[in-house]
């Protein structure tokens, strides 16, 4: 079975399970139809099959052109759910014959249990065999569909399947929820952003209903597990619990939908644990006062932030040497993710460039959470690593035109753009080997303004080599980065400006910072021997950009027990962009409340840079 078929079968199994659990076998079909007709509001299950002649049953079809099989689901009058997989190219007549066989078996099974059937039994005590059920498919306009038509063509949305006297309306590819999860850690005052994957729908078109657990009974809705649930007055995708919810679990009821306001069957998920108390004041609370609203037209609120990868936070070295002052629970991923999602959501940013993003954190936490706040995410992993870079952009302000990510070591070896640099580095084999061993990457995305399509912009994001003595390696990496960005902004999209964000692991006194700001670096600069004479690699370099740090040179953007300094920057093209405002960093008192970073009130050892940029 290929990947698409496996995914389809998995989705169908989930759908089937949800349908069976929704109302029980004998009422399932009626409740499902009533739910859809009500627009997602709760309704009583209604009569069993055949009791309501004006209401049609439902037959759900999943038919995807890229897969060889189609799936069909319906419920017979005896309450048994039937799930069939048929070749899309198979003639309709064969599928109808199979349905007739299945329906006949169900009818016979029900007859055996019927007192009436036993009363009418023959001399041997067996029920009188039922006449074969007629099974036909009618098109939307009421015409009988020919039996030599293929399944893919026959089973259209709005068609009617008739099994005996019972009619089923065909719903082809209705929206469905493939995955629905709540975070494991819930904190009062921090947004709960569910992870949602849909098929034939989109999370922004789904309907949401939130419930809180009611201690001691008296709620609206009992669950099979015995809990009593009270609906919260929130119909949004994101729910922020209050102190009143501490100690209570949450439940989410999600009805999948699409842009045509078509809705599928709902799914529910309950939190695995209760809401817990939050940490109180956080370092970013005062910053949110400046960013309550999304920036206006012509402005680009930009964030750059090293969020501290979990693979680095959850080590014995981190707990005992790097961050011994940080409470162990505050280094846990679930706890830090609560803080991080609230922090990022509160900045109302148009662009967010993140470094040290765990692959699973991007997919399972940040991308779903920021998607709920209108941001689309892109991810580039480091080779041989489990973390990388993430760039998010606001969907109603930008569309993605193209991506041009590179790994520095691979580009230096194979891309003709860097031949001159390769030749300059060749006489220094030890430095060259060190550069090629590094897994650092550059993420480059070209965006187009939705309001003014003539405005395009290049967003670059990177995390350079970390070692304190690696200044020479960082110079080579930034030379590769700037050469690649020049290719994108001059050759591929001539004249577009650049915003270059990242953790450059370089203070303002280093050669790397001087090179970006001035456009050149001399071959006798001290950073070429940053790791001693053996790794010396003297060369002069230039680049054509006019770049400056939008947030200036803060005293520090990284504050840990043994070091503090400015390592992070948002460099902008001053020919096209200017700074409207810089969001103040947390005060020194806020940063050091718990000695250093990270802490119970700050999720990373770095501090986010935030500024509003404007087109010139």
TrEMBL record:
It holds the Pfam family PDE12-like_N. Residues 1-21 form the signal peptide. Residues 174-276 form the 2',5'-phosphodiesterase 12-like N-terminal domain. One of its GO terms (molecular function) is poly(A)-specific ribonuclease activity. GO terms for biological process: antiviral innate immune response; cellular response to dsRNA; cellular response to interferon-alpha; cellular response to type II interferon; mitochondrial mRNA catabolic process; mRNA processing; nuclear-transcribed mRNA catabolic process, deadenylation-dependent decay; positive regulation of viral genome replication. The keyword Mitochondrion applies. Residues 107-116 have a biased composition (Basic residues). One of its GO terms (cellular component) is mitochondrial matrix. Residues 107-127 are annotated as: Disordered. Gene3D superfamilies: Endonuclease/exonuclease/phosphatase. Keywords: Exonuclease, Hydrolase, Magnesium, Metal-binding, Mitochondrion, mRNA processing, Nuclease, Phosphoprotein, Signal, Transit peptide. Residues 304-606 form the Endonuclease/exonuclease/phosphatase domain. It is found in: Mitochondrion matrix. Its cofactor is Mg(2+). Belongs to the CCR4/nocturin family. This is 2',5'-phosphodiesterase 12.
């Amino acid at each position: 079975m290929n990947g698409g078929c496996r995914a389809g079968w998995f989705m169908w199994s989930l759908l089937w399970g949800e349908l069976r659990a929704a109302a029980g076998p004998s009422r399932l079909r009626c409740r499902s139809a009533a739910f859809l007709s009500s627009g997602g509001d709760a309704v009583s299950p209604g009569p069993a099959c055949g009791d309501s002649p004006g209401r049609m049953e439902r037959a759900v079809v999943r038919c995807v052109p890229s897969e060889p099989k189609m799936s069909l689901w319906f419920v017979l009058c005896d309450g048994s759910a039937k799930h069939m997989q048929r070749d899309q190219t198979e003639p309709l007549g064969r599928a109808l014959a199979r349905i007739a066989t299945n329906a006949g078996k169900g009818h016979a099974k029900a007859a055996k249990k019927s007192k009436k059937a036993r009363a009418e039994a023959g001399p041997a005590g067996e029920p009188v065999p039922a006449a074969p059920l007629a099974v036909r498919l009618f098109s939307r306009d009421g015409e009988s569909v020919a039996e030599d038509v293929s399944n893919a063509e026959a089973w259209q949305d709005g068609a009617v399947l008739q099994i005996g006297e019972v009619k089923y309306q065909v719903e082809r590819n209705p929206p469905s929820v493939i995955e629905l999860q709540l975070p494991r850690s819930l904190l009062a005052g921090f947004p709960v952003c569910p992870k949602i994957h849909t098929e034939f729908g989109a999370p922004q078109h789904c309907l949401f209903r939130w419930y809180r657990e009611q201690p001691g009974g008296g709620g609206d809705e009992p669950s099979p597990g015995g809990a009593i649930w009270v609906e919260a007055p929130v119909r949004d995708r994101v729910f922020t619990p209050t102190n009143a919810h501490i100690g209570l679990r949450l439940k989410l009821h999600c009805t999948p939908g699409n842009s045509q306001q078509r809705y599928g069957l709902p799914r529910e998920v309950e939190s695995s644990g209760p809401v817990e108390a939050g940490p109180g004041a956080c370092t970013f609370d005062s910053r949110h006062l400046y960013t309550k609203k999304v920036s206006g037209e012509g402005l680009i609120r930009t964030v750059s932030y090293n969020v501290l990868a979990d693979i680095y936070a959850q080590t014995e070295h981190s707990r005992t040497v790097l961050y011994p002052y940080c409470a162990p629970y505050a280094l846990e991923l679930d706890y830090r993710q609560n803080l991080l999602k609230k922090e990022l959501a509160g900045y109302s940013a148009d662009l967010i460039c993140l470094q040290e993003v765990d692959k699973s954190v991007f997919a399972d936490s940040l991308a779903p959470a920021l998607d709920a706040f209108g941001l689309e995410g892109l991810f580039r992993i480091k080779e041989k690593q489990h973390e990388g870079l993430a760039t998010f952009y606001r969907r109603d302000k930008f569309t993605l035109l193209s991506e041009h990510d590179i790994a520095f070591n691979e580009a230096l070896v194979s891309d003709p753009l860097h031949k001159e640099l390769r030749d300059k580095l060749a006489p220094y084999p030890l430095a060259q080997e060190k550069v090629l061993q590094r897994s650092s990457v550059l993420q480059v995305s070209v965006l187009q303004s939705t309001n003014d399509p003539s405005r395009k912009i290049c967003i670059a994001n990177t995390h350079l080599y970390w070692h304190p003595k690696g200044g020479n390696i960082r110079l080579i990496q930034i030379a590769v980065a700037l050469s690649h960005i020049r290719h994108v902004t001059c050759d591929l999209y001539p004249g577009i400006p650049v915003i270059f964000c990242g953790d450059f692991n370089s203070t303002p006194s280093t050669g790397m910072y001087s090179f970006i700001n001035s456009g050149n670096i001399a071959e006798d600069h001290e950073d070429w021997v940053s790791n001693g004479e053996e790794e010396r690699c003297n060369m002069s370099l230039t680049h054509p950009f006019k770049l400056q740090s939008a947030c200036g040179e803060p005293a520090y953007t990284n504050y840990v027990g043994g070091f503090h300094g400015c390592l992070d920057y948002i460099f902008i093209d001053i020919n096209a962009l200017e700074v409207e405002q810089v969001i103040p960093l947390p005060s020194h008192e806020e940063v050091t409340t718990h000695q250093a970073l990270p802490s119970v009130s700050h999720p990373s050892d770095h501090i986010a840079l935030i500024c509003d940029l404007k087109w010139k």
